[in-house]
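G.,

No rush on this.
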Amino acid sequence: MIRLRQLEAFRAVMQAASVTQAAEVLRISQPAVSRLIAGFEQDIGFPLFHRRRGRLQPTPEATFLLGEVERAITNLDHIGQIAEDIRNRRTGHLRIACLPGFGTSLLPQVLAQFLIQRPDITVSLQPRHNQRVQEWIMAQQYDVGFAEVPVEHPAIEFETLHVRCVAVLSEQHPLAARKVLTPRDLDGVPLITMNRDHPHFHAVRLAFERAGVHFNVRVETRQFASACIIASEGVGVSIVSPIDAEEYTHRGLAIRRFEPALPFGLGILYPAHRPRSLILAEFVAMFRDSLKRFQMEAASGQRLAG
């Protein structure tokens, strides 16, 4: 069986035209070089050198073989470099699916930071609706998905990250003068909510019912992004994820703390029967840290106007 060290010894002797110099290049003894050459000749079944007057003279076969040996060593060196890059999370490809709102907010910000530090990593980022993200993950077409939870399918594994929802409204709305909004403040106020079949709709409605106030739904929509845009135009107030809300402050959207706390579950979805790469684990860890900082800033008021 041909060994890499044999190839290196052969190349060194061919390039140096001397066992002594080859030994110096390889930093081994002359007898060690001779043994490697002899073993290589035995493995391939023909002589590579004629020994004349204490010197090695390459055979025509050796000259012909040298080019292939150099290419083989170069390829192995390249594989070694790639392996090192993979080990150090410097190369690879990520396929990420996400909800449309996340495709224009915190996720691409984190992704940009991740890529700046790792110039040889490539990414496919595809925003789609919740059901399609789940389908892609089930089919193992994407490495990770950011979608709503819970998810009930054996082909998907997921972890849940909770974010505290905020109230959003136009900066010109009378209630924008308040730093905190509660269901009592929103008694009878027109609301923009998720569709009635969405778990978030029922969570918000329950908060109003417990406060004993009127839950006045004027607009139902399927996305937080739509709710933010409609609220920014002065149509009403909405209770949404702060990640989505952040993207619409430039449209005159005011973000206010909402009491009581209403968590929104963000799911990180993985194909259940597929190993996760090192770069995927590192990217998800970076996203978790960024989300944690985002929520800490929101809690301290740094991200809430007023």
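When you get to it, here's the other one too:
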Amino acid sequence: MSTVAFYDTKPYDRDYFQRADHADQLAWRFHEFRLNATTATSASGAQAVCVFVNDRVDRACLMTLAELGVRHIALRCAGFNNVDLVAARELDLAVTRVPAYSPHAVAEHTLALLLALNRKIHRAYNRVRELNFALNGLVGFDLHGKTVGVVGTGKIGRIAAGILRGFGMNVLAYDPFPSPDWARDAGVTYTDFSTLLAGSDVVTLHLPLTPQSHHLINAASIARMRPGAVLVNTSRGKLVDTAAVIEALKGGQLGGVALDVYEEEEGIFFEDHSGEVLQDDELSRLLTFPNVLITAHQAFLTREALSEIARVTVTNIQRRAVDETFLEGTAL
């Protein structure tokens, strides 16, 4: 029976992974702390480690894991920018991921953020709880007839575009690898990035973090957006330059921002800091704006997504355990 060291464990992780098919054929060691070069020695005796978005699997960490006999890095997420893939290959460590668990979960959360931000649902909820039923300051705008720019048209971006079309929005799209047949059938118009920014009332991000997409939303790109446009990001935090967003909010260039991810979320998101002073000045500043709505990387958090994440991850670990040459769509 293979042993799996499982990091950054939350109660829902234990629940869904232990209930996954064939999970009882693996020996699980659940750790609440994150995996990094310092904590990697805790994987001693394990053949695989299971990691999430904020585990830091760099070269130093991988070297320790390889020395301990770990042969498999099983990501329970789609993104893999926190893993040094070059070092993993050099050390002959297999790396697998869950490329598509529930794109509907993330796309639907995108719409939830946009609707809540636009119609001030979060502010209205707090008012009513305090018996304040006034409507001043709660004016939003109709999505119908507005233009939304969808940056990235993979599975999530396409589903988000379809939902937005259902609201009667005009959809512009940008992707380095466009899908013209899908766009034609979906009533979506591909354009270049600058045209999308200039022509959109709402811009929503649905693309992976790469060296090319790092800080794609920065001072220069924000300046090309329509004054008062709304930005939504449910993809990767580092797609957005937080300092530039703060300046644009202060100056009114951005009319609102909805984020499920944050570029320096490691050590903050997924944890309870309610009894502490938040040490991140930029996040603290963002939280002061009335036209900013932030959730803590929860777009994936549906029953369907958690079940699929557990199923695919367990399958990856089992197949790798019995077949050292295992390679399929989930392998990197």
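Confidence is low (pLDDT under 50) at residues 325-329. The chain has twelve helices and twelve strands.

Enjoy the weekend,
O.
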